[in-house]
């Protein structure tokens, strides 16, 4: 393809010099006129060229190129003398210009200011993180997700157990004990949905207080403390506003994508792209696995929460061990978004003394003491009355 090498590099956008005064069109050369009937037919040219020297081929093709521009530029002179719009030298000049530096400094300072102005501390864990979304805006997004979950369940023909069903009552009972320690007792409109799906081990708590438990996770939770581990973990994701954090994390990507929409989207395509982006944002915020950091944080907050609510924190590690075993046989759905590993169980065991301390500091000491006393009394055949 070196045959197409021109004396001047071709640039897609070319600034043409002023049109020279009108003059009669130049007569094509004799050699070119021999092929003028099929000037653009490469086959003919090539066939001829193969019989001539390589030099002739280059000349013919150069002249053909010139002919493409002959409508406005009969002799091709304007095209040959065209200057590129963007040159390396020009770009270098822009980069070196003090005003470019000022804009870059302002942009970086603005981004840094925006970042630091939106730093906040996560409750319970005390971690500092970047979050631009208020609880209200996350809740509004979550409303859409709630409708989508209900729609999906209906489409799959899944049955939501009635409020009076023992399984719903069990989940509601554990939730009732956890909510006062969630720090969101008054903020959310708590609602419990137990989906009759023995083959699905899954649970989630959407921002806004919508609790979904798929009945397949109940045997794995085994007892109320195990269930409190699952629910405490899910509530903790809300308390720590992990959805808002994830949406904030994707803000950089969104800026780039929206800029692209602005530049190339036009109207129709822009709308489709924005719609696609919206569903992607939902997917990122709700469906993809939380980051390891967020998972570990939810484990910690959930453990403290269930201990304060008088559940046995020792059951948390046991629950995760059961999930781990179950995942080796068949991956429970919850595990696809909550990867279990030895490290998670090890961490929970490290936090256990603190959780036990929390439990002892909580009001349940009297309840436990009474329960122990009652058990002993029964063993001794003594019936107690208050
Ligand atoms: Zn989680």
Q: How would you summarize the topology of this molecule?
A:
Elements: E1 14-15, H1 30-33, H2 42-51, H3 54-68, H4 77-80, E2 83-84, H5 88-96, H6 98-117, E3 119-121, E4 128-130, H7 135-155, H8 166-178, E5 191-195, E6 201-206, E7 210-215, H9 217-221, H10 224-239, H11 242-249, H12 251-265, H13 268-287, H14 292-308, H15 314-329, H16 333-337, H17 342-361, H18 364-379
Helix pairs in contact: 2-3, 8-10, 10-14, 10-15, 11-13, 12-13, 14-17, 15-17
Bound molecules: zinc ion (ZN).
Cofactor: Zn(2+)
Transmembrane segments: 255-278
GO cellular component, one term: mitochondrial inner membrane
| Small-molecule binders | zinc ion
| N-to-C SSE string, H for helix and E for strand | EHHHHEHHEEHHEEEHHHHHHHHHH
Briefly note the structural class of the backbone: mainly alpha
Outline, from the CA principal axes?
Answer: elongated
Instruction: Order the strands across the largest sheet as they lie in space.
Output: 5-7-6
The number of helical segments is: 18
Number of domain units: 2
Strand content: 5-15%
Number of strands: 7
Tell me the helix content: 55-70%
What is the CA-atom radius of gyration, in angstroms? 35 Å
Low-confidence stretches: 1-16, 27-49, 373-386
Mean pLDDT score:
74
Cα end-to-end separation: 100 Å
Biggest beta sheet summary: 3 strands, mixed
Cofactor: Zn(2+)
Protein name: Peptidase family M48-domain-containing protein
Transmembrane segments: 255-278
Biased composition (Pro residues): 18-27
């Amino acid at each position: 393809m070196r045959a197409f090498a021109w004396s001047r590099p071709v640039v897609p956008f070319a600034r043409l010099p002023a049109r020279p005064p009108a003059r009669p069109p130049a007569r094509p050369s004799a050699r070119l006129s021999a092929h003028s009937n099929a000037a653009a037919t490469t086959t003919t040219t090539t066939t001829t060229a193969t019989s001539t020297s390589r030099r002739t081929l280059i000349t013919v093709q150069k002249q053909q190129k010139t002919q493409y521009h002959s409508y406005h530029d009969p002799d091709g002179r304007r095209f040959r003398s065209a200057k590129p719009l963007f040159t390396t030298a020009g770009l270098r000049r822009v980069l070196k210009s003090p005003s470019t530096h000022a804009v870059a400094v302002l942009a970086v300072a603005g981004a840094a200011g925006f970042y630091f102005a939106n730093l906040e501390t996560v409750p319970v864990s005390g971690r500092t993180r970047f979050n631009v979304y208020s609880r209200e805006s996350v809740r509004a997004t979550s409303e859409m997700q709630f409708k989508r979950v209900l729609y999906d369940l209906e489409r799959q023909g899944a049955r939501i157990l009635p409020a009076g069903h023992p399984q719903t009552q069990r989940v509601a009972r554990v939730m009732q004990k956890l909510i006062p320690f969630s720090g969101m007792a008054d903020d959310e409109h708590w609602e419990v949905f137990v989906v009759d799906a023995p083959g699905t081990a899954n649970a989630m708590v959407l921002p806004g207080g919508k609790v979904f438990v798929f009945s397949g996770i109940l045997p794995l939770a085994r007892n109320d403390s195990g269930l409190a581990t699952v629910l405490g973990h899910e509530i903790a994701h809300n308390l720590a506003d992990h959805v808002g954090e994830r949406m904030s994390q994707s803000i950089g990507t969104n800026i780039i994508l929206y800029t692209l929409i602005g530049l190339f989207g036009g109207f129709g395509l822009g709308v489709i792209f924005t719609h696609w982006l919206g569903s992607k944002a939902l997917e990122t915020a709700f469906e993809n696995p939380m980051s390891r950091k967020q998972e570990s944080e939810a484990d910690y907050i959930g453990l403290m929460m269930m201990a304060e609510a008088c559940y046995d924190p020792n059951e948390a590690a046991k629950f995760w061990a059961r999930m781990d075993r179950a995942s080796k046989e068949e991956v429970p759905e919850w595990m696809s978004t909550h990867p279990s590993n030895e490290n998670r169980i090890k961490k929970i065991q490290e936090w256990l003394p603190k959780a036990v301390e929390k439990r002892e500091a909580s009001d349940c000491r009297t309840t436990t003491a009474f329960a122990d006393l009652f058990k002993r009394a029964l063993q001794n055949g003594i019936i107690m009355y208050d």
